[in-house]
Amino acid sequence: MKHVETVIIGAGASGLACAATLVAAGRDCIVLDRGRRPGGRASSRDLADGRTVDLGVPLFRLTDPGVQAMTADLRARGSIVRWPGLVADRTGDRLTYRDPEQDPRWTGAPSTGALLATMAEGVPVLQELAATAATHASGSWVVTCTDETRLRADFLILAMPLPQARRLVADCPGAPFENDACLVTALDVSDGAWPDLMGTQHNVACYIHDDDLLALVVRRPGRPWVVHASAAWSHPRLDQPVTAWAAEMSKQLSERLGGPAPTVLHAHRWTFARPRGPLAGGHGWDPDRRLAVCGDAWVGPAGRFEGALRSGLDAAGRVLGTA
Ligand SMILES: Cc1cc2nc3c(=O)[nH]c(=O)nc-3n(C[C@H](O)[C@H](O)[C@H](O)COP(=O)(O)OP(=O)(O)OC[C@H]3O[C@@H](n4cnc5c(N)ncnc54)[C@H](O)[C@@H]3O)c2cc1C
Fold first, then answer.
1. 304 lines ligand 1 (CB under 6 A)
2. Which fold has domain 2-84+111-177+277-320?
3. Hey, which of 111, 142, 206, 311 would disulfide with 88, CB 3.0 to 4.6 Å?
4. Closest ligand 1 atom to the C-alpha of 273?
């Protein structure tokens, strides 16, 4: 059985931030992820028509001084850029725009998926490999994967939503809570559509705060529109086929906002999109078993994407003895 110092399960923002730090320090680690590409909830999809669409986090804050070194490097490489438009809030009939200088937002370039792929450069990531069990005995971890691969490790880092971490290690650190789901569609919508909802700005991410169906609509020139459904709309449809709820979303949008039902270019179901009660404290740590749990479960009220990065950096500090 192969032995490494640290196994990290999860190649999303937190797992990659953790792994990149360990690799930079010359430490021995492996990242496992069941997805086809790194990114987790910061994933993008290449559509058949050649366009790319961000299906998870479209834009994020960078306010935490703890992530500045890592993100400054990514900005210097052009992988993180300022969000190239406005951020709006809609509550009832009221549409307001945030001041981009007071509350700057950032995004991955050319996509969030590309940003996470850049973060994965030089990191040993085994994709399409799901961990099915992690057990601790005699001072070390044994991680078993779907293809019967088994890895032995001194440290285990669970870098994923807390409900998923609990499936692997039922008594991992962190008080149990659930995650809200989010159903997302990428739609072909003409540039000037839905002015009553979005205003007439062509480049805008609009958070909708009191709607049964909509939570966020993102409109960027040259890209498909991306619609995030509210948790209340998403949960009852989680077990339906993707084609069924995507068609229903398109029909409801047309009825509500006018115009023909938009063509659905892609639809994605995020079962664990957002932690319902994120825990403060940055990460979970069990010193006896050398087990860290990181990700946006631990960001408290902070921004989720930057919080996930910070959480992964903190978990790396446990391995390095600097936390
Ligand atoms: C629709 C949506 C909109 C969002 N909008 C925003 C926003 O506006 N602003 C913001 O800051 N954040 C936003 N976020 C949140 C942001 O994307 C996340 O906080 C961040 O990407 C979480 O990173 P993570 O590393 O904690 O977890 P994840 O990205 O979920 O990574 C976990 C990884 O673990 C892998 N995994 C899980 N179980 C196993 C297993 N058993 N074996 C192997 N691999 C496993 C998964 O495949 C996944 O790649 C949004 C997220 C979604 C889904």
1. yes
2. FAD/NAD(P)-binding domain (3.50.50)
3. 206
4. 53
